[in-house]
Design goal:
Elements: H1 17-20, H2 26-48, H3 59-70
């Protein structure tokens, strides 16, 4: 079952990227491009998840984290 992709600012592990990265940093451009691509792919991701069972981590959230881990 596909997890929710709502922003969870109250969690201790959530970091607002815009508060920690310079506005002109290339990471923000990359993350913006990834976000746009993931919106386009959302329906395809939804099709591969089961409608029942244990809720899993949203694939979009995992993929959005990749550019930040590479830096």
């Amino acid at each position: 079952m596909r997890g929710d992709v709502a922003v969870t600012g109250s969690l201790a592990s959530y970091i607002d990227l815009e508060k920690w990265v310079r506005p002109d940093h290339s990471l923000l451009i990359i993350c913006g491009s990834v976000k746009i691509a993931l919106v386009d792919l959302s329906s395809a991701f939804g099709a591969i998840y089961s409608l029942f069972g244990q809720v899993s981590s949203p694939l979009g959230r995992l993929l959005r984290a990749q550019p930040m881990q590479a830096v």
